[in-house]
Amino acid sequence: MSHLRLIAATLKYRGIYSLVEKNVNRRVFLQSRNYASTGVTEPFLSGTNSSYVEEMYYAWLENPKSVHKSWDLFFRNATSGALPGQAYQTPLADFSESKTSLIQSHGLTKSPGKAEKLVEDHLAVQSLIRAYQIRGHHVAQLDPLGILDADLDSFVPSDLITTIDKLEFYGLYESDLDKVFQLPTTTFIGGNETMLSLREIIKRLENTYCQHIGLEFMFINDVEQCDWIRQKFETPGVMKFSSDEKRTLLARLVRSTRFEDFLARKWSSEKRFGLEGCEVMIPALKSIIDKSSEMGIEYVIMGMPHRGRLNVMANVIRKELEQIFCQFDPKLEAADEGSGDVKYHLGMYHERINRATNKKIALSLVANPSHLEAVDPVVQGKTKAEQFYRGDSEGKKVMSILLHGDAAFAGQGVVYETFHLSDLPSYTTNGTIHVVVNNQIGFTTDPRMARSSPYPTDVARVVNAPIFHVNSDDPEAVMYVCNVAAEWRNTFNKDVVIDLVCYRKRGHNEMDEPMFTQPLMYKQIHKQVSVLKKYADKLIADGTVTLQEFEEEIAKYDKICEEAYSRSKDNKILHIKHWLDSPWPGFFNLDGEPKSMTCPPTGIPEEMLTHIGNIASSVPLEGFKIHGGLSRILKGRLEMTKNQIVDWALAEYMAFGSLLKEGIHVRLSGQDVERGTFSHRHHVLHDQDIDKRTCVPMNHLWEQQAPYTVCNSSLSEYGVLGFELGFAMSSPNALVCWEAQFGDFHNTAQCIIDQFICSGQAKWVRHNGIVLLLPHGMEGMGPEHSSARPERFLQMCNDDPDAFPQFDDDFAVSQLYDSNWIVVNCSTPASYFHVLRRQILLPFRKPLIIFTPKSLLRHPEAKSSFDEMMSGTSFRRVIPEDGPAAETPGEVKRVVFCTGKVYYDLVKERKNQDLEKEVAITRLEQISPFPFDLLKEEIEKYAKADLVWCQEEHKNIGYYDYVKPRFRTIVNHTRPIWYVGRDPAAAPATGNKNTHLVSLRRFLDTAFNLEAFEGKMF
C-alpha cells in the first residue's frame, strides 16, 4: 500500500504551495476564475501567493477541464511528486508524456490504466469531502417541523452523495464503496485513522454535515480557523455528554418550559411574547455563559428582542420571579417618575455565582424598544466601555451576546452596520456570540417574502463569521454548538452566529391568530410534541433519569413559581429602578437621586488654559514631520494662546484637556472627527514620511491624565450613534461625544435618538450623558448640508410651554434635572467650552444636543478671551445685549432674540444701519430647557420695545414654534413676539447661492425695519 500513501501525500494542497514557494521569484497570478476561457496559455509566475494556487487547485480538483491544459499538467506533475521547478511544462509538451511520467514515478508502468484510475479516485474523494464541507448544510435536517427548508430551497446539490447514482458525478461507482482511501489533511473524519473505506467516509460526512447541525464556514479565508471548526465537528465521538450534563440540560428545559406554562395559566389574556417553540434557547444561553465563565469571562452583556425576554430574565439572569409577576398586576402603580415601559422591554443587571464554575459573574440585559435590532450597537458600545475601563483589551473578561429574530436579522440594516464595527480598532468588542431565534416566520410574513438570501444569517458572512445552523428540537446538538461557539469566540476573538431553527407555537403575540396566514404550518405546530417531552422520553428510555425524577423536577419548579406568585401580591409598589441595566454605584444617593442640585463654576485657572494651548500648538514626539499647512495651523494656535484668545477648535481642546486632568475619560467618535470635517480640529497628527505613525497631543497633556480617545468611525450614523450611546451608558465619569459629519445626517440615526436618547430615562430610569455635535447653519450649501433639524429635538422636549416656573436659587440646575435632554446652540467658543465641562460637573447626566457651527469655526468675530473661561466663570444660558442699547434701555425700540450664527449677521447689519442704540440683540445659548428667568429679566428691561424672534431657518423649521409659546407665557400674552426669518419651505435650505443671499438680505431688512410691525394684529 506504499504507493497509495505516496499518492495521498501528493494530495496535500500545502504540498502544492511548497512546490511553488520554493521556486525563487515565481508567483502564480490568477487572471480569471474561468481559466479555460481566458486564453491564458501558461501559468504566469512571479513571486509567491498561496491563495491563488489554492483556488486554482480546487477548481482543477472539481473539474480538470476548467483550467488550461498547462495548469492541468502542472497539477498532475506536482501531485505525482515532481521536484520543485520541474512540475511546470510548456503547453507544447505532449500531454501523453506527462501521463507516462506520472505512472512511472509510482512504479506502475505495467498497469497504467489502473494507476491513473487510482490517482483520479483519490482526487475524487478529496473533492467529495470538500463538497460536504461546503454544501452539506443545504441538506441538513434543520426544521423541527419537517416541512420547510432552512435555506428556502429543496434543491439537493449535485455533488453530495444522497443516492448511489450520485457517485458517478465523481467517476466513482458502487463497486468503489468498499475501497480504502487515504484521508487528506483537510478533514478530521478519520480521528486516529488515516484510511477509510468510501462507504465509511460518506457515512461520517453525512453524520457531521447533514444531520441536525448545518455548518457554514468554508468561506472563511483562514486555513487555521477552518481546520479548527473541522476538528470540532468532524472528529468522531466529539458530541458526547455525561449523564450529569444531560440531567442539567433537562432541568434547564423544565424551567424554560414550565415558566412559559405558568404565565399562560395565570395571565392567559396578557401579551408576553413567550418562547414556546424555542424553549431550548434558555439552556443554550446558559451553556454559552457557563463555557465563557470557565474560560475567564466575568461580565456578559446581552441584547435581545421582546420574544422570550421574561424567560431570559427569570432563568438566565435570575431576576426575582415576584418582581416579574408584579409587572402583570394592572392595579399596581409605579413609584418611579417617567412613563415606564412594557415588561418585555425592560432590562436588568445582576451579579451572581455561576454554579457550573463557582465563579462570580455579572449579567446585564440592556433595555430596548420594539424597534428590532436597534439595541445591537448599544450593547456593543456598552461592552466596549466595560472592556476599556477594566483594561480588557482582548475581551477575556467582558463579552456580549446578541439575540435576534430571523426576519429582523435579515431585514434590518443596523445588523450590517453593527457587524462592520466588529473588527475596527476603536469599536471591536473582540467577538460577539449571535443567537438567531429562527421562528421561520416574521409576524405574519413567510420567509420567502421576507428575504432574498438563502438563510437569514447570510449577512454575517461579510465579516467571515462562522454560522452554525442547528435543529432546536435536538437539545444536545444545540448545547454542543453553543459550547463550540463560546470556544471560538475565546480562541479567535471573532463573531460567531448560532442559527436556532425552531418555530413559534403561538401567533406574534398570545392574542394573535396565526392560522389566518400560515394555516399549514400551524396545523403541524398544533401536532408538535414539545422539545421537553421529546428529550425527557429520550433520557428516560436510556436510563439517564427516571419518570419519577422528571416529574419531581417539574413539581419543584412549579412550586417555586407559585410561591413567587403569592409574594408578588404583597408588592404594593412597582419600582422600575429595580430593573436598571446599567447601575452607577456611588454616583447617586441610595434612593437613586442626585447628591445635590448645584453645579460648581466651570472655568479653569489661567495657567491651565495656557498649558493646554501650548500643547495643542505643538508636536510632542521627536522627529515627527507634519504637513506644512498643519504647521501654519499650529502656529496660529500658539499665537492665539499668547494673546489669550481662543477659536472654536482651541476652546474644545481646552474643555477636553481640562477634563482629562480631572480623571474624566473623553471619547470623540464619528465620521472624520480626527481631523474634523471642516479641517479645524487636527487631534491626530500624521507623520508625512512614515506610514501609520501618528501622534495625539491630547494624550501628552499631563502625567497622570485620563486617556483621550478620538476615532474616525465607519460611514454609519445609526450603528455608530447606538454604539456611543452604549459606551456612555457604562459610566457617568466619561464625556462621550458623537459628531455627525453634517448635522443633517443624524436623521439616519433617528431611531436611536427617538427611542433611546430622548425617552430613555422616562422609560427605563436610565441616565445618559451622551453629547451630540451637529454642524448646523444656513450658508448656501444646499438642503442636505445645512440644517441639523433643531425643530425635531425641540418638539421632543418635555418642558411645558404654558407653565411659568417658580424660580429659586437652584432653578438653573433643577430645570436641567427635570428635562429629558439639553439643547444648545452656542455662539461663542467660551459657551462651547463651558457647556462641555458643565456636562460632567452636573450631579446627574442628561443627553446634550449641540448645534455646532461651520463658518463660525473661522469667523474673525467668533472668538473668546481667556477672561470668559477662567476660574469663577460659567456657562451663560443667555448672553444679553452689552452695547450702547443696554445703556439706555428705555430708548430701545426693538429687542431681537436669536441663537447661533445668525447673531453675527444681525450685528453686522445693525452696525451698517447705525441702529446700535435703537436695537438690542440677545442670544439664547441654551434653548431647552427654556431660560424663563433670564429672558423675563431681558423683556422687563426693554419694556417699550418690540419683541422679535429672528432665525435664519425657514419659519416651519428651526426654533420659532418652540420659543413662541414660551415667550408668550413670560409676558402673559400681553405683548406679541414677532417672527423674522425665511418663509416656510419643504426643503430646509436652497441649493442656489443667489437665492440664499437674496433671502438673507430680505429677512435682515425686515429685522431692522422699525416700522415693519406697526398696525399689524397680534
Automatic annotation (TrEMBL):
GO terms for biological process: glycolytic process; tricarboxylic acid cycle. Its cofactor is thiamine diphosphate; Mg(2+). Its EC number is 1.2.4.2. CDD domains: TPP_E1_OGDC_like (cd02016). It catalyses: N(6)-[(R)-lipoyl]-L-lysyl-[protein] + 2-oxoglutarate + H(+) = N(6)-[(R)-S(8)-succinyldihydrolipoyl]-L-lysyl-[protein] + CO2. Pfam families: 2-oxogl_dehyd_N, E1_dh, OxoGdeHyase_C, Transket_pyr. GO terms for cellular component: mitochondrial matrix; mitochondrion; oxoglutarate dehydrogenase complex. Keywords: Calcium, Glycolysis, Magnesium, Metal-binding, Mitochondrion, Oxidoreductase, Thiamine pyrophosphate, Transit peptide. GO terms for molecular function: metal ion binding; oxoglutarate dehydrogenase (succinyl-transferring) activity; thiamine pyrophosphate binding. Belongs to the alpha-ketoglutarate dehydrogenase family. This is 2-oxoglutarate dehydrogenase-like, mitochondrial. It comes from Anolis carolinensis (Green anole). The gene is OGDHL.
